[in-house]
Amino acid sequence: MTARLSIASIFCLLLFALMAGCIGDQAPNTQEIPVHSYRVVAVYPHDPEAFTQGLVYKDGVLYEGTGRYGRSKLRETNLETGEVIRSRSLPPQLFGEGIVLWEDRLVQLTWRSGIGLVWDLENLTVAGTFVYPTEGWGITSDGRDLIMSDGSSRLLLIDPETLRLRGKIDVQSNGEPLPGLNELEYIDGLIYANVWKTDEIAVISPERGEVVAWIDLSGLLTEEERLSSDFLNGIAYDPESERLLVTGKLWPKVFGIEIVKSEGSRPFGIS
Predict the structure, then answer these.
(1) Which of 85, 219, 223, 257 is the most interior residue, by most CB within 10 Å?
(2) Which has the closest alpha carbon to 181: 163, 166, 196?
(3) What share of the chain in percent tops pLDDT 90?
(4) pLDDT tens digits for 77-130?
(5) Quick one: three-class SS letters along the chain?
(6) What span, in angstroms and rounded, lies between the C-alpha atoms of 143 and 157?
(7) Residue 105 lies inside a defined structural domain of this protein
(8) How many separate domains does the chain show?
(9) How many Cα atoms occupy the beta-carbon half-sphere of 175 within 13 Å?
(10) In a domain, 6, yes or no
(11) Domain containing 220 — which CATH number?
């Protein structure tokens, strides 16, 4: 009787170990993703009333798209001084979102209206409009497509000639969808994306749709400055100095930063 119980016990233990092993094999393989920090190399003034939704830098000029109903604008500013060179208001029913340069035009998204604006850069007037079947958040270009975000974990590809959707990229971090993709900037083959309500930028491989690095931008603002500011949102790139220009909604400053690469890493998740 005792021997039979011992054999039964051993059999149960072996069966449990086998089942546990199978469960373990089914668990996702969590790869660690590098987390980079930053070095501030310049600080510029920024209108603390600007609800920043998109940034583009070109030849010393910072183009900025701002949001809020009845207060949305497209602005051209002097980066060094923060002086507004030209400014255009959007119709009050449109909530301005991300912007991108394409040839001699500037494309601006709006939030929930499904309407995009195409601006003529020479006189900063609306040269045309287009529609899309989703919310508009951020937008950038890889030189072939316009790439837009809609607040989800997907990026939509738009033909810049027809302004019609022609594809998508589903973005994941360690096999998990990454929602909240916001303002975008395409740099050297990678997409840099603000993630809504965080101080982090996700660096995304467009070919694989995977996050290949994080940039932690916490600490840019003082505690006092954060009291009157909203979330980080706004990425532009200066190719000559190879630095990022970053700011946020209602932030009093634009920061010129260099990325400090780190050997540190962490599993999927935003802290």
Answers:
(1) 257
(2) 196
(3) 76
(4) 999 999 999 999 999 999 999 999 999 999 999 999 999 999 999 999 999 999
(5) CHHHHHHHHHHHHHHHHHHHHHHHHHCCCCCCEEEEEEEEEEEEECCCCCCEEEEEEECCEEEEEECCCCCCEEEEEECCCCCEEEEEECCCCCCEEEEEEECCEEEEEECCCCEEEEEECCCCEEEEEEECCCCCCCEEECCCCEEEECCCCEEEEECCCCCCEEEEEECEECCEECCCEEEEEEECCEEEEEECCCCEEEEEECCCCEEEEEEECCCCCCHHHHHCCCCEEEEEEECCCCEEEEEECCCCEEEEEEEECCCCEECCCCC
(6) 12
(7) yes
(8) 1
(9) 7
(10) no
(11) 2.130.10.10
* 204 pLDDT higher than 50: yes
Residue with tokens 């373990």: 24
pLDDT digits (tens, 9 = 90+) for 234-269: 999 999 999 999 999 999 999 999 999 886 554 433
Single-letter residue type at 149? S
pLDDT band for 30, please (50, 70, 90 cuts): low
Give tens-digit pLDDT for 152-200: 999 999 999 999 999 999 999 989 999 999 999 999 999 999 999 999 9
Expressed as residue numbers, the domain containing 165 is 32-263
Spatial neighbors of 162 by CB under 8 A, at least 6 apart, are none
Residue 95 CA to residue 76 CA, distance in Å, equals 18
**What's the pLDDT score for residue 158?**
94
Q: How confident is the model at residue 224 (pLDDT cuts 50, 70, 90)?
A: confident
Q: Confirm whether 113 is domain-assigned.
A: yes
Whole-model pTM? 0.84
Examine residue 79 and state whether it is found in any structural domain, yes or no: yes
